[in-house]
Every structure is written in structure tokens, then in C-alpha cells.
Design a protein that fits this description.
CATH architecture of the largest domain: Orthogonal Bundle
Shape: elongated
Helix content: 55-70%
Number of domains: 2
Strand order of the largest sheet: 2-1-3-4
Number of helices: 8
Largest sheet: 4 strands, mixed
Distance between the termini: 49 Å
Radius of gyration: 21 Å
Strand content: 5-15%
Oligomer: single chain
CATH topology of the largest domain: Peroxidase, domain 1
CATH superfamily of the largest domain: N-terminal domain of the delta subunit of the F1F0-ATP synthase
Length: 179
């Protein structure tokens, strides 16, 4: 299933890049489609039902696309998803799309955990440091974790940079126990 979602997602990334569609706009429009499917069980049933004519499904899609201001390639992509009965995979497809698009555009998704909420200035400093380390533009999300005691823990993909007081204390404990 993951490879199927990946194929659809990569195809959409190619279209977005070839047609120079704003990546953030494409992401928002797809998210709006996902939200519509999640908010309305009736919509999901219509798009999944083999008993409903494809023209009727596309008419519903066109109304939603017009309402959210979706560009034609996003509307057409959703039509393909509906026609190929892949609505159940939409969440996975969009998640892979976002990851692939970020990779193509040189973005890194970063999660920053800190003992307390960071100020805007501190967030900019953390993002600038991560950008220097990764060589990529950063799209960061921030969470508070009082267990860290101080400092920050930064997750970039599968890599974790632990600059927390708790992490430093743990490192010292390990060094002392092996000495």
C-alpha cells in the first residue's frame, strides 16, 4: 500500500514542480480536501461508492474544489484518486506528498522540544542553527516538555540533536558509570 501511495504522491509532486504551482498552496488545498473527507462521512461514501456515477462524483468534487479555490491540477489529481477508488489512501498519499515536496524544495521538517515555550527570537535562533547544520530550509513545530529541565531537543527526520539539560545529565551519568 505504501508504494501505491508513494506513486500517486510522487506524480503529484512532479506536476506541482513542472507547473510551478506554489507548494504551500498545493499543500493547503490537499489538506482542505482531506478535511472535507474527514468531516463528512456522506462525502466519503459518495466518493467510494461504485453505485454513484463518476460524473456525479466529479460534480461534487468540482463544487468542493471551487469552494476551496483549488487549482486545476489539484482538482484533477483528486479526480484520479476518486476514479481509481483510492480515497481510503488519501491521508497516506498526502503525507508522502508533503514529505516528497519538502525534499524537492529543500525543506526539513523539524520538531523542537523545550522545557518551556520559546520566544519568537529563540525560535528564530534555533531554526537558523538547524538550517546551518542541515543545509536546508526549516519548517519547525514546537512542543513544550518540562521533563527536559532546560535546553532543547531537535528532531530532524530520524536524527535527534539533544541539547537538553536532562540529556546532558544522562550523558554524564553514562560516562561516570563506564569510568
Amino acid at each position: 500500500m505504501a508504494s501505491v501511495a508513494s506513486r500517486y504522491a510522487r506524480a503529484l509532486v512532479e506536476v506541482v514542480l513542472e507547473q510551478r504551482i506554489d507548494g504551500n498552496a498545493a499543500r493547503e488545498q490537499l489538506r482542505a480536501m482531506v478535511d472535507a473527507v474527514h468531516e463528512s462521512i456522506e462525502l466519503r461514501r459518495v466518493w467510494e461508492s461504485p453505485a454513484i456515477l463518476p460524473e456525479q462524483k466529479r460534480a461534487v468534487l468540482d463544487a468542493i474544489a471551487a469552494q476551496i479555490g483549488a487549482v486545476k491540477p489539484i482538482r484533477n489529481f483528486m479526480a484520479v484518486i476518486i476514479d481509481h477508488r483510492r480515497i481510503g489512501m488519501l491521508d497516506d498519499i498526502v503525507r508522502v506528498f508533503e514529505t516528497e515536496l519538502d525534499a524537492q524544495l529543500g525543506f526539513a521538517e523539524v520538531q523542537v522540544s523545550s522545557a518551556r515555550p520559546l520566544s519568537a527570537q529563540e525560535q528564530r535562533e534555533v531554526e537558523a542553527r538547524v538550517e546551518r547544520m542541515t543545509g536546508k530550509k526549516v519548517r519547525a513545530t514546537y512542543v513544550s516538555n518540562p521533563d527536559l529541565l532546560g535546553g532543547v531537543v531537535v528532531r530532524v527526520g530520524d536524527t535527534i540533536y539533544d541539547g537538553s539539560v536532562r540529556g546532558q545529565l544522562e550523558k554524564m551519568r553514562q560516562e561516570l558509570s563506564t569510568a
